[in-house]
């Protein structure tokens, strides 16, 4: 017997606690730039130029991409992209002008876009131009890795419709006059509403907005309630492949892992996740689902992303805490206090793995430096090593917290701006409502105390945490952990570790790192990638944490089309459909 597909139906998706969709405007700023607002919300309605992930592999899906494969000239500096003639829901054709509109805004407002890194796209362009109604050219200032250009540069583009080219006074023309881009940006951000505000009242207006209702993806927004329930319906004007099978897709906010799990148990949601700690992978293979507590009524699907996990440390903090963070030996000691193997084995019960540096360990690839892989990272868990680092640099570690006894900037001294008598103590804010993360942070606190470092823990609502504890000058947070990290397209470091990058969460600036990053984007040589990641691992500008499946997805047994899992975190609910089981 085979399963018989059913046309229509409603599927409800449970959002991660504390992370409702916060931004609808695809030009998303760094403080809200993440999987939740982009890959699981915006891209259902507004298709990017290139779609990341194909059949579970980390590559471009050309069928789902608005742009065709770039064609390069003989110099290796200029490429031409043809735009497929998909339709916007207002009847207009997706075209070169829509790409130029985005590019003009990126040229003017790049630092306010989360994927922007100073010196890179669009700063590294000599020109970009419409060369036909359906073609755009990009000329770079030098020859770069074509793989990097495609995956890390051109994927930043989301074509924007003519209907968005306006201000409060009426239609504008930022598409052809870059001087108007600033005013159009301000209008669109006002239409989005405050990106930091947690109240949903401004989001309830998105569905009826004459701006945000113009879509080219397979879904359009039907409603967004004060309670954070998001409802999508199929875009009846969608002209791309794979139109939606379902009648509705609903996304519901949750406040905790436990609440979300009860929604699964009750049958109120069809796509949710098993709270970390509830699932056990007895074979220690986090890529495969183990025994399912929900039984045969659900499918257990680990969401393995091409990502790293870390906690940020704030280099821009203007206090003594910031002075301590700016000392490499302090960060190295902190990293040496983090027992990643404990986290992977005990907290995540076999569904985790140690993250040794800035390149994802899973899915397995030849991109990880052999030197890092062999050593298990530059600073594996070693409390005695942590104590020695501190003692060698002017701290009395016979007490906890350790006390600075040799101030100054010379050899064996604590470093600039750290007075005698200073206690080695940091506040660490982390995402509330996640018991596994709380357990991991408590273990880190207890281990760090043994080495002489006091960690003062504070739980904070997830969306508040990422809005307040991000990039920016003279922010007061010290250590911050939202329980995740970064999903890469191609794992060069310009987004996370380049000086001034919009998503340089630690506010780290390092000339040598910038130089090494620059090498990785001009060649496909693995040696350049190895040299860069080894320097990052040695310097520890973030504290690497055990990585784990973003979610252990629980999918209703009669819902099909969910797999394979996209390694970048994008979703395609237009592929989902119900079946009459055993028909």
From TrEMBL:
Gene Ontology BP annotations: peptide transport
Q: Name one GO molecular function term.
A: peptide transmembrane transporter activity
* Pfam families per UniProt: SBP_bac_5
UniProt keyword annotations, A-Z: Signal, Transport
Lineage top rank: taxon: Bacteria
Name where it's found. Cell envelope
| Entry's Gene Ontology cellular component terms | cell envelope
- Keyword Metal-binding recorded: no
Q: Does the keyword Signal apply?
A: yes
Where does the Solute-binding protein family domain lie? 69-503
- What InterPro entries would the database entry show? SBP_5 (IPR039424), SBP_5_dom (IPR000914)
- Spans traversing the lipid bilayer: none
Family, as annotated: Belongs to the bacterial solute-binding protein 5 family.
Q: What is this protein called?
A: Peptide/nickel transport system substrate-binding protein
């Amino acid at each position: 017997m085979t399963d018989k597909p059913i046309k229509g139906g409603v599927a409800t998706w449970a959002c991660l606690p504390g992370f409702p969709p916060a931004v609808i405007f695809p030009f998303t700023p760094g403080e809200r730039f993440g999987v939740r607002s982009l890959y699981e919300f915006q891209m259902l309605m507004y298709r990017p130029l290139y779609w990341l992930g194909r059949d579970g592999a980390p590559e471009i899906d050309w069928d789902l991409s608005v742009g065709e494969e770039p064609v390069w000239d003989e110099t290796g500096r200029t490429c031409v992209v043809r735009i497929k003639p998909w339709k916007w829901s207002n009847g207009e054709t997706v075209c070169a002008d829509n790409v130029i509109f985005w590019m003009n805004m990126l040229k003017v407002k790049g630092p306010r876009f989360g994927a922007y890194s100073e010196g890179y796209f669009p700063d590294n362009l000599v020109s970009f131009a419409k060369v036909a109604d359906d073609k755009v050219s990009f000329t770079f200032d030098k020859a770069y890795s074509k793989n990097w250009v495609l995956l890390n540069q051109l994927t930043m583009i989301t074509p924007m419709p003519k209907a968005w080219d306006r201000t409060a006074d009426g239609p504008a023309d930022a598409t052809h006059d870059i001087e108007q881009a600033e005013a159009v940006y301000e209008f669109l951000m006002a239409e989005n509403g405050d990106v930091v505000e947690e109240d949903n009242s401004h989001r309830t207006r998105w569905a009826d907005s004459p701006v945000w209702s113009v879509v080219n993806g397979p879904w359009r927004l039907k409603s967004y309630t004060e309670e954070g329930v998001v409802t999508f319906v199929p875009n009846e004007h969608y002209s791309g492949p794979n139109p939606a099978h379902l009648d509705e897709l609903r996304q519901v906010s949750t406040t905790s892992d436990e609440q979300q799990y009860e929604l699964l148990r009750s049958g109120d949601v069809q796509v949710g996740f098993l709270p970390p700690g509830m699932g056990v992978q007895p074979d220690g293979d986090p890529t495969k689902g183990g025994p399912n507590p929900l039984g045969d009524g659900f499918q257990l699907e680990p969401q393995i992303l091409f990502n790293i996990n870390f906690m940020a440390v704030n280099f821009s903090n203007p206090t003594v805490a910031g002075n301590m963070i700016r000392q490499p030996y302090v960060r190295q000691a902190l990293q040496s206090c983090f027992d990643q193997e404990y986290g992977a084995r005990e907290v995540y019960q076999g569904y985790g793995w140690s993250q040794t540096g800035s390149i994802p360990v899973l899915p397995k690839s030849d991109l990880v430096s052999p030197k890092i892989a062999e050593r298990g990272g530059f600073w594996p868990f070693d409390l005695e090593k942590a104590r020695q680092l501190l003692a060698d640099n002017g701290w009395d570690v016979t007490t906890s917290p350790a006390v600075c006894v040799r101030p100054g900037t010379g050899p064996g001294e604590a470093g600039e701006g750290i007075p005698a008598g200073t206690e080695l103590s940091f506040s660490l804010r982390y995402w509330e409502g996640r018991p596994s993360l709380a357990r991991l942070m408590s273990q880190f606190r207890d281990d760090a105390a043994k080495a002489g470092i006091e960690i003062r823990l504070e739980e904070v609502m997830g969306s508040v945490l990422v809005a307040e504890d991000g990039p920016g000058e003279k922010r007061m947070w010290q250590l911050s952990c939202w329980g995740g990290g970064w999903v890469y397209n191609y794992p060069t470091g310009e987004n996370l570790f380049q000086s001034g990058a919009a998503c340089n969460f630690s506010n780290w600036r390092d000339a040598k790192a910038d130089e090494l990053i620059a090498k990785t984007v001009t060649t496909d040589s693995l040696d350049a990638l190895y040299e860069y990641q080894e320097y990052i691992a040695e310097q520890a500008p973030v504290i690497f944490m055990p990585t784990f499946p973003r979610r252990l997805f629980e999918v209703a047994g009669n819902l099909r089309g969910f797999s394979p899992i996209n390694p970048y975190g994008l979703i395609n609910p237009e592929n989902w459909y119900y079946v009459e089981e055993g028909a």
